[in-house]
Write a structure and sequence with these properties.
Helix content is about 50%, strand content about 20%. It is of the alpha/beta class. The strands form two sheets. A five-stranded mixed sheet has the order 6-5-4-7-8, with helices on both faces. Helix 10 runs antiparallel to helix 11, helix 11 runs antiparallel to helix 12 and helix 14 crosses helix 15. The N and C termini lie far apart (about 65 Å). The relative contact order is 0.09.
Length: about 400
């Protein structure tokens, strides 16, 4: 909406008289028709006018070009704000930006917090209307949640540490609308424990398929961000992962998740064989030493190969990755034999995203996931339990590599 002029001068005497009357009338302090809204409106419009005047001093050929107005919102309500324009359209106000419709960070933070807890745009709009008397369109809600994108991009490209003790790679699947159809994509999370025992999500990566090429791009991204070494990598038997990681981090020990292997085995089994299979598989991975485990694996093979040949073959072909944890003590084994640590992160993500049928775009998904990650980072404080003991075992196993770190 445009205005040709704004000749009405602000009168402090009139404001004072009307404000006192408004107090007796039990009017709200801010918002449209609020007691102090005229004062805030006056200060903002004067500041914007001064900003334009300073800008015109730098551009002699430029001049004022009337006024425009927009409704701005705050946690105290909304009101009309008149802003000046210049003829050359080079004026970029700082106090209230051109497309800014929300004043102050508190309201934006409230909206982002509600969105990050899984509330839909409609639920948030209803809440803002009931509590603050504010109305937002779907486009305006999207613009507000878009404010998180620069922070997300900075987080995704931030420098990382040179070495991580254990890194977990796992996926969570979501439906996204794309070109008029709904597709299922995998969101891969990279979760880690650094050399000080602190947990950290290193990044998120969206893909339509698992492949060596995709995982190579992930490894290269981690490397470009500063990672030189990962002592142990834990995965869910992702296709192409071993090839990708050996290309970029050839010294990393790869451990496939035992729990995923058990689940994959049970997919081939009839219900009546479940319990027997679980007992026999448990006998393999709970052994104290690898030679004992290999004996149990052979017994498992002989017992089940005729009934479930595909499942047994999977154990045999993946054994070199499934058995890596036998080289470590029980404290490290407990961390690396399963992807449970990253699945705990996934549970928190699902708790927020479970009400979403599908996402409108890759960025819509990433925005929400990043808001969840911010909450996770706030709650995940402190070191991994028994970290001193774990670090001591890692140092004995990887002394040459750890000693190359600065300050070690």
């Amino acid at each position: 909406m445009e205005k040709e002029s704004n000749n009405q001068e602000f009168s402090y005497e009139d404001f004072e008289r009307e404000a006192i009357a408004g107090l007796y009338q039990k009017k709200s302090f801010m918002g449209e028709g609020g007691i102090f809204t005229p004062l805030l409106k006056h200060f903002l419009e004067k500041a914007l006018s001064a900003e334009l005047e300073a800008h015109l001093h730098q551009e002699e050929a430029n001049k004022r070009n009337g006024l425009t107005s927009k409704m701005v919102k705050s946690s105290s309500g909304e009101f009309e704000l008149v802003t000046p324009r210049d003829r050359n359209s080079t004026f970029v106000p700082e106090i209230v930006a051109k497309r800014q419709i929300v004043l102050g960070d508190d309201l934006c933070d409230k909206i982002l917090s509600m969105y990050g807890k899984g509330m839909s745009y409609n639920d948030i709009k209803k809440f803002l209307s009931e509590i603050y008397g504010l109305s937002f369109s779907a486009a305006q809600m999207s613009e507000i949640t878009d404010l998180i994108i620069p922070e997300l991009e900075q987080w995704q490209s931030r420098p990382l540490e040179e070495m991580y003790s254990i890194v977990w790679f796992d996926a969570i699947h979501y439906k996204l609308r794309e070109n008029g159809s709904v597709k299922t994509k995998a969101l891969y999370n990279v979760f880690s424990v650094n050399m000080n025992g602190q947990r950290e999500l290193l990044g998120i990566y969206l893909s339509e398929s698992e492949s060596a090429k995709f995982w190579l791009s992930v490894m290269e991204d981690l490397q470009l961000r500063g990672v030189k070494d990962m002592l142990i990598a834990c995965t869910d038997n992702l296709k192409g992962f071993s090839d990708a990681i050996s290309t970029v981090f050839p010294q990393t020990i790869v451990q496939s998740c035992i729990v995923h292997q058990i689940r994959n085995t049970l997919k081939y089994a009839t219900r009546k064989d479940y319990q027997s299979l679980v007992v026999d598989m448990r006998a393999i991975y709970t052994c104290a030493k690898i030679d004992q485990a290999e004996v149990k694996l052979e017994e498992f093979t002989q017992k089940w190969k005729s009934r479930y040949p595909v499942a047994v073959k999977s154990w045999q072909e993946n054994w070199y990755k499934l058995s890596s944890f036998f080289d470590f003590g029980k404290e490290i084994r407990r961390l690396m034999y399963t992807t449970n640590p990253i699945e705990n992160v996934h549970r928190q993500m699902r708790k927020v995203t479970k009400t979403k049928g599908s996402f409108s775009s890759d960025m819509a998904l990433k925005k929400l996931i990043y808001l969840v990650i911010r909450e996770i980072n706030q709650s995940q404080k402190g070191k991994v339990q028994n970290w001193g003991l774990i670090y001591g075992q890692l140092f004995i196993k990887f002394e040459e590599r750890i000693s190359k770190l600065p300050d070690k």
